[in-house]
From TrEMBL:
GO CC annotations, alphabetized: plasma membrane
Highest taxon, organism lineage: Bacteria
InterPro entries: ABC_transp_permease, LivM-like
Location in or out of the cell: Cell membrane
Acetylation listed as a keyword: no
Entry keywords, A to Z: Cell membrane, Membrane, Transmembrane, Transmembrane helix
Protein name stated in the entry: Branched-chain amino acid transport system permease protein
Record region (Disordered): 347-374
Pfam families the UniProt entry points to: BPD_transp_2 (PF02653)
Taxonomic classification: Bacteria, Bacillati, Actinomycetota, Actinomycetes, Micrococcales
Basic and acidic residues bias spans: 361-374
Amino acid sequence: MWTRYILLPVVAIVLLSIPFFQPRDVQTALTSAVAFAIAAIGLTILVGVGGQLSLAHGVFVAVGAYGYIVLAGEPGVEDRWGLGLPPVLAAIGGVALAALLGLIFSPVAARLKGLYLGMASLALIFISEYVFTYVTPLTGGLQGRSVQQFDLFGIPLSGSTPKLEILGANIDGIARLWFIAVIALFLAVWIGLRIVRGRPGQALQLVRDNPTAAAAIGVNVQHAKAEAFVVSSAYAGVGGVFVALYSQVLTPETFNIVFSINFLAMIIIGGLGSIGGAVFGGAFVALLAFTMNKLGGTPLLPFIDQTGLNGIPGGTFSTIVFGVIVVLILVFEPTGGAGIVRRIRSRRAKPSPVAPPQQSHDTDSRGAVPEKTR
């Protein structure tokens, strides 16, 4: 237990110091990893703990992203919708809109389950693709839409102005956004653990395993399912706001069906029902394409070319790689990365076999001292 109190500050210090020794593109990739990890935590609460299959998690992420853009956008600019709200309120509003969509969809989740619920959620993707592409005042259509700079109490925390240097490092918008993303990730993990380990998580697990027994002991099954969808959607909304902020320009192509399916891959790779596994899976999937592109053209991965003209694009190859990983995990390790970690911990915690006490030559089988040795 004491290792957690040492490890946690060390991890926090390492993460917060990244802008001082890593280039801008790495900071952007890591910020995207944090955004995906936060959204994946929400999906693992819904699918891993609540047992409700959703194939449209990317839609809720998109609602958070576009919600921020519209609420923070300047009104009357190029026929785009915008309310001109302060960025903080716009970010909160984006999360609230994603949660509201989850609440609207929750009655469907209450009536359906399993594959039927998955197919119903899949319909959300098709509807959203049409809306994001053709409702130009909302998304800017295929041309995309620029993202309003985020600031807190007048201090710009995204974008590229004003220029700021600390200890010789350029702390520009992405670096400042990284600091906020790390804080948001720690909060998301803490809240997620409180939910999973607390009464709501226990009620969700019981609803998942035996709805009849859950109802018999007083759990409102429909209410529990609706809460899971709302919480999951809110997490997706937070991830969506960060996606918008680090992207700076959003296009509807970002939120296609592959984007949504990737979130399922994240929680499967990390381990269903594990908050730490969701963070690992989100970071793994987000950073795999970036790593592939970085290594593309080198002797290590000569067949990868970022342009796609002289080889396979890193993003495409990474999709193939984690597709294979998902299949291998489902076949050989259904509990994912979290299950592997738990097994290692249990082996370490397993007490070493105690050698049976050797019988003294000075005692008999009952422990009494033989007559001849007295």
